[in-house]
Design goal:
The chain is mainly α. The protein is built from 7 helices and no strands. The longest helix has 33 residues.
Length: 185
């Protein structure tokens, strides 16, 4: 590994050790932002929509990073840090029945209300129509990520791992939201 990359990783790990919540929040915000830039480019937007980008960074920083941090700490406390097959399965089930639906619902609400500035009546209708398929899709993808995360990733790195996977999931959700908006136009 190059000297600059090695020093950067060491510095990051030090920040993660001394300021875990802040580091996870910043990481989630940065990855949410990069995910949005990629989504905008893939959906054909020529000039980056700065307001949208900043609002996505805010969502990652203020919600995804902190909630992930506390959720993983809580799960490890409840299940006493165990990583056996039965315990990991329980963690994944709890995660998929609690935080997964909440994350997807809040993201869809935030995207439609805050980022797109849509009226509540439109958002309510959109959620009724699209939320079930988004959540079902999440349940085909995120349990595998959760299994890997809880089984193989150290506690302090779980939010970072999840944020990196969420980078791709965010692109999926953004492109889905964009294609729905284009189809209705």
């Amino acid at each position: 590994m190059g000297t600059i990359a090695k020093k950067g990783l060491q510095s990051y790990m030090l920040q993660l050790q001394h300021h875990p919540l802040r580091t996870k929040a910043i990481t989630a915000g940065v990855l949410s932002g990069i995910s949005d830039i990629v989504s905008q480019k893939l959906s054909g937007i020529q000039k980056i929509q700065l307001r949208r980008l900043l609002l996505k960074v805010l969502f990652g920083f203020a919600y995804l990073g902190p909630v992930g941090h506390f959720m993983h700490m809580l799960l490890d406390k409840i299940f006493k840090g165990r990583k056996d097959t039965k315990t990991v399965a329980k963690k994944v089930v709890v995660e998929q029945l609690t935080i997964s639906p909440l994350n997807n619902m809040l993201f869809m609400l935030y995207y439609a209300l805050v980022i797109e500035g849509r009226p509540w009546i439109y958002v309510k209708s959109k959620l009724k129509k699209e939320y079930p398929s988004v959540q079902l899709t999440a349940w085909t993808f995120w349990p595998v990520v959760g299994w890997i995360n809880h089984r193989h990733v150290p506690l302090q790195m779980r939010v970072i791992f999840q944020s990196m996977v969420a980078f791709c999931w965010g692109i999926f959700l953004n492109l889905r939201a964009r294609s729905m908006a284009i189809a209705k136009a």
